[in-house]
């Protein structure tokens, strides 16, 4: 998988999420990972956008732009590689929201240490 600069963050976010989401979400994630390389890259982008949304140094204006990219990416992933796109798009949205909240908490906890 083409992990880039923030490999540790991405892997931690993905594994934490994967262990805490419902079976439907896990199935959706597995399908993305086992799909074509293009969809693995989209998952990489999804995690990257979630990390950017969780970054406390990003301004609200930047977050609005990131949020638009995130919503468009979720829609594209659901349509292109998942069965029942409408249902799985909401699963992916829940996954992304959980990713952002969970990563913000972990960053906050690390800063307090």
UniProtKB/TrEMBL annotation:
The lineage of its organism: Eukaryota, Metazoa, Spiralia, Gnathifera, Rotifera. This is Uncharacterized protein. It comes from Rotaria socialis. It holds the Pfam family PDS5.
């Amino acid at each position: 998988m083409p992990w880039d600069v923030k490999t540790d963050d991405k892997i931690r976010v993905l594994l934490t999420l994967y262990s805490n989401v419902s079976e439907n979400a896990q199935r959706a994630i597995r399908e993305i990972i086992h799909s074509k390389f293009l969809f693995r890259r989209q998952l990489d982008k999804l995690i990257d956008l979630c990390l950017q949304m969780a970054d406390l140094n990003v301004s609200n204006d930047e977050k609005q732009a990131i949020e638009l990219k995130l919503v468009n990416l979720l829609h594209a992933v659901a349509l292109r590689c998942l069965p029942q796109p409408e249902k799985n798009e909401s699963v992916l949205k829940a996954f992304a929201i959980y990713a952002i909240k969970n990563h913000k908490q972990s960053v906050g906890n690390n800063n307090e240490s």
